[in-house]
Amino acid sequence: AVLEFIRVHPEVRALGTEPHFFDRNYHRGLEWYRSLMPRTLDSQITVEKTPSYFVTKEAPRRIFNMSRDTKLIVVVRNPVTRAISDYTQTLSKKPDIPTFEGLTFRNRSLGLVDTSWNAIRIGMYAVHLESWLQYFPLSQIHFVSGEKLITDPAGEMGKVQDFLGIKRVITDKHFYFNKTKGFPCLKKSESSGLPRCLGKSKGRTHVQIDPEVIEQLRDFYRPYNIKFYETVGQDFRWE
């Protein structure tokens, strides 16, 4: 969503697909990576998006080696909702996977959460952030609230534009709320000038999960969330 919204800005050019350079394709070399990028003027910023970088151990060092001035934008949302959303998406592709509950716990009665399951591990933001802070100062990392991006897209995008050091061009007038999807849409897309809503996987109805499982997960994430809030100096109010 952030990529789709920010690319409306005349000072930003963005790569549409996820290049996965700093995780899967690093062996192809920097020239390969550069060749994928849109042509830009000196005054423009080039943006790419690959969510898995955030949880890839080698990514911070590799990005730092390319350019220590790189600005990083991370969209975070309530880790419990994030895990359910992740599971919902996987389920739509592989209907025969185990239940959410079965994948979440190593031992349900003892409340032992299986942190090796990706859907759970990704939401442990404080853990992943440590790797990044070894290379980049917090001033070069901006955290976008996934929740506020839905309720106040213009406000969140205003902060993104400030962080990138560009004029606040994207404002309220760029958005309308799509009630069917429960998600904001752009009134005009960068390429066609027609309204642009995110793909069909966005705003998808989540699988119903036992409230007790949700409560156990909330307890599990709480210490990680608190540490994350303290580290970044921002309270996302996921409690």
If you had to describe this structure to a student in words, what would you say it looks like?
The protein is an alpha/beta fold and 239 residues long. It has a single domain (1-232), classed as P-loop containing nucleotide triphosphate hydrolases (Rossmann fold, 3-Layer(aba) Sandwich). The chain contains ten helices and eight strands. The protein has helices at residues 2-6, 30-36, 59-66, 79-93, 100-104, 118-121, 125-133, 146-151, 153-164, 211-232; strands spanning 12-14, 45-47, 72-76, 105-107, 112-113, 141-145, 175-178, 183-186. The strands form four sheets. It has a two-stranded parallel sheet with strand order 1-2. The protein has a two-stranded parallel sheet with strand order 3-6. The protein has a two-stranded antiparallel sheet with strand order 4-5. Strand 1 (12-14), helix 2 (30-36) and strand 2 (45-47) form a beta-alpha-beta unit. Helix 7 runs parallel beside helix 10 (211-232). The chain is globular and about 60 Å long. The chain starts with a helix and ends in a 7-residue tail after the last helix. The mean pLDDT is 93.
